């Protein structure tokens, strides 16, 4: 054997194990966290709302409101005294939506999103400016109405009446829009 040759070892792996000493097996890696499950959807509520939208579209009948008519509704869940305060303009509006210039389809989407957002954030009283309908508009390509009834005002009235989370509403006092706006009381969100 030459002087510069390394010592004879049977196996390099044995040499390595002798050098590092005893080893222990590492635990298996924990799997990555699974994404959270999606929140359950209120499918029946969605179906009810879709049905209400369909029935609304076909419900433009003889009970259309005129420009000077006041919007007014009180559910059985709203005490008469609170409704009286609402009619007198004694309840402050926390958020407001202006629908001026919107077409019927856009106004419907905006109002629905606005009310859902208000409920989600715990807002109890909102205002909706719908206008008096004196300048006309279009309803699915047809003229306003043969009698000149305000389209957005009637849309807002029907949509608010069909929502279970609306306790009551009344046209705003004259300084805050009169019959061109409505103040809406929403049911409080239940604690989960």
Mean pLDDT: 80
Q: What is the CATH class of the domain at 66-186?
A: Alpha Beta
CATH fold-level label of the domain at 66-186: Ribosomal Protein S8, Chain: A, domain 1
**Beta fraction:** 5-15%
**How far is the first residue's CA from the last residue's CA?**
84 Å
Could you state the order of secondary-structure elements as H and E? Answer: HHEHEHEEEHEE
* Portion in helices: 25-40%
How many β-strand runs?
A: 7
Radius of gyration over all CA atoms, rounded: 33 Å
Q: Which parts are unreliable, with pLDDT below 50 for 5 consecutive residues or more?
A: 137-146
SS summary, helix count: 5
The side-by-side strand order for the widest beta sheet comes to: 1-6-7-3-2
Broad shape: elongated
Alpha-beta content class: alpha+beta
Q: Would you identify the CATH architecture of the domain at 66-186?
A: 2-Layer Sandwich
Largest beta-sheet characterization: 5 strands, mixed
Region (Disordered): 1-47
GO molecular function, one term: DNA endonuclease activity
Organism: Cognatilysobacter bugurensis
Domain Smr: 97-187
3D architecture notes:
It is built from five helices and seven strands; from the N terminus they run ααβαβαβββαββ. It is elongated and about 105 Å long. It starts with 11 loop residues before the first helix and ends in a 6-residue tail after the last strand. The strands form two sheets. It has a five-stranded mixed β-sheet with strand order 1-6-7-3-2, sandwiched between helices. The chain has helices at 12-20, 43-57, 80-87, 104-120, 151-162, and strands at 72-74, 95-98, 125-129, 138-139, 142-143, 166-171, 181-186. GO terms for molecular function: DNA endonuclease activity. Residues 1-47 are annotated as: Disordered. Residues 97-187 form the Smr domain. This is Smr domain-containing protein.
